Amino acid sequence: MPYCERCGAELDEGAKYCPSCGTPVGIPQIRMEREGRMPSVARILLLIFGSIVLLVGIALLVGGGALLVVNTGLTDSEGFIATNSYRLERDSYSIVSQPINIDVGEIAGEWGVWRPSPGDFVTIRLTGSSNDPSKNVFIGIAPAEDVQSYLFDVYYHEVTRFSVSPSRDLTVEYTTHPGDSVTSDPSSQTFWTVSQHGTGTQTLEWAPEAGNYWIVLMNEDGSAGVDSTITLGVKIPLLLTIGLALFGGGVTALVIGAVMIYFGARR
Questions:
Q1: Residues 65 and 242: beta-carbon distance below 8 Å
Q2: What's the predicted TM-score (pTM) here?
């Protein structure tokens, strides 16, 4: 009575396959051993690469989830991430920021391809109000050379350094620029890239463009003694898109990795 070379089961006369394990009858043993080894190698490869894909998926899920949490948990109804409100007070005619130099680089222009504007990636919002009931606030952003010309020989303060402590207290260092001239009404100037002024709280939004800019805080009438409360907000339009893309890629990678591991572990 013949027996199966693989499992030892008894075979019927003339049987072509083992009724127990399905092994074809009459195939040399060395061939059977080779056929048995090949699936094992494939299973090991599936397990290795499936595990790698699974780890990548977890990393994408964590990164995408973090961005989604930031976008939904730290932004306001308009999508801005805002700081606390801080008081800026000086006896001069103006408080200005350090120069903001925005340069997207020359490579895109040299190759003649689309050059993105910084405003495609970020929007800045400044909200301010005067702490002096007799004065209105003025907030403006303009090219550095225009502001320097406007404030030439005018007494003003430049913010050169600021820091926020763990308790959210603001520390500001200023450089004093002395002068003998008196500023004219800032709201009547035409060089401002964007500006807002008036009674109560004023909100300015700016989509940055390449160039060198100054942020200027003044009284609406141009008088000395600036005392205002300012809040800075930043909106990153692509934050939600990037978060969703990473999260979706993570879910896809997890599914693919799990399928690979399943077939690698399945006998």
A1: no
A2: 0.63
